[in-house]
Amino acid sequence: MAYSFLDLAYEVLKESDKPLTYQEIWDTASNASLTAKLKTSGKTPWASLGSRLYVDIRETPDSRFVGVGKRPMRFFLAERKAELPQDAALRIEAEEAKKPDKAPHYLERDLHPLLTYHCYANPAFNRGRSIYSKTIRHQKSQKPGYSEWVYPDMVGFYLPLDDWTPDVIEFNRLSDNNSLRLFSFEIKRSLTKANYREAYFQAVSNSSWAHEGYLVAAQVVQDDELLTELDRLASSFGIGILHLDPVDLGGSSIIYPARVRGDLDWETINKLCEQNPDFAKFLQDVKIDFESKRIHRAEYDDIIQDPEKYVVEKLKA
Predict the structure, then answer these.
(1) Same domain, 158 and 178
(2) pLDDT tens per residue across span 280-305
(3) Domain residues for 280?
């Protein structure tokens, strides 16, 4: 029988001394290399794990698992249920209630170098492509009062200059030029039930012009209702959710993938160029790189060499 999501959860919880959320189960399994045993091609396997656990507890009378607490629910082994105190759910909910939904102490701008590094170096996000990014400074906008709803915090691009032969690149240029991929990012320190709607629709407003748009957050509060809403919004509007984890940058992941657009919104792109010189310069630089078949890295945000050192010194994390 094939190794399943429930088998993975069982192995993790067999060694755990406390109930875990499905995200914690997935993270633990990833660190223990258990996820490699799964035969799955899904883009959000942790969400699949959560749904399997919820359904199994609800529909299977002799489930191997029990749910503890809610919002978020934690999971434990039914065979070890006697190890839990009778008021385990109340204790967990009381502990969660004590935790304030405080945004991290650093600035959103401090996350830009980490996102630049993530786009360039994280294969789970870039799929082996070199994605370069650039900060768009809102203060340069001709209409600064509306800038946060018009301009993304960062933009990025990919050109296959190192992956394709020169002849293929030139032929692509003569045909439909579809080798270029543009990315748009709206960055927040934290996503909570109090701010997620405004943050998401801000990303919809300023990122839907690109091939892929993302709402990026360093902290995503683990709340089932919040995650369900983010899933619904991502499915409906196509802007993905990216968790950029400063504590474990390599473990940063796409919570909900972006819907890839086949065509760019040229009217919006033209508006952005007219109103913000940073954006206009970005497009000029990408055009020059394509025509010269060489990436001029100095025109884009620097890629930090030691992200761990940056996190410790700048973010104090």
Answers:
(1) yes
(2) 999 999 989 988 888 999 999 999 98
(3) 108-312
Q: Tell me, yes or no, whether 115 and 89 share the same domain.
A: no
What's the sign of the alpha-carbon dihedral 211, 216, 222, 223?
Answer: negative
Q: Is residue 244 part of a domain?
A: yes
**78 and 178 inside one domain:** no
Number of domains in the chain: 2
Only one residue has tokens 């960055």, namely: 187
Confidence (pTM): 0.70
**Is 250 within the bounds of a domain?**
yes
Per-residue pLDDT of 100-148, as tens digits, reads 555 567 889 999 999 999 999 888 788 888 899 999 987 655 555 555 6
